[in-house]
Amino acid sequence: MIIWKTKGTELYQQLPSDCHESLKAVEPLREVPENMKVQDEVYKTLRETFKK
């Protein structure tokens, strides 16, 4: 059996350990800060896209 391992596969397989090493637990926001910007609407569902 031949298994081809591409750079993309190597990157994909490395992601879990990269995340585990770099992410850290934080406290949740209890209130929205006044100076926080509203996120731009960059994602819509298909239904929202075609709604008239």
| Envelope shape | flat
Count of individual helical segments: 2
Q: What is the terminal-to-terminal distance?
A: 54 Å
Give the radius of gyration: 20 Å
Mean pLDDT: 87
> H/E series, N to C?
HH
Which structural class should the secondary elements be placed in?
Answer: mainly alpha
**Percentage of β-strand residues:** under 5%
Short account of what is shown:
The chain has 52 residues and is an all-alpha fold.
Structural overview:
- It is flat, with a radius of gyration of 20 Å.
- It is an all-alpha fold.
- The protein has two helices and no strands.
- 40% of the residues lie in helices and 0% in strands.
Per-chain topology:
Layout: H1 7-22, H2 46-50
Question: What keywords describe this structure?
Answer:
52 residues, mainly alpha, flat, single chain
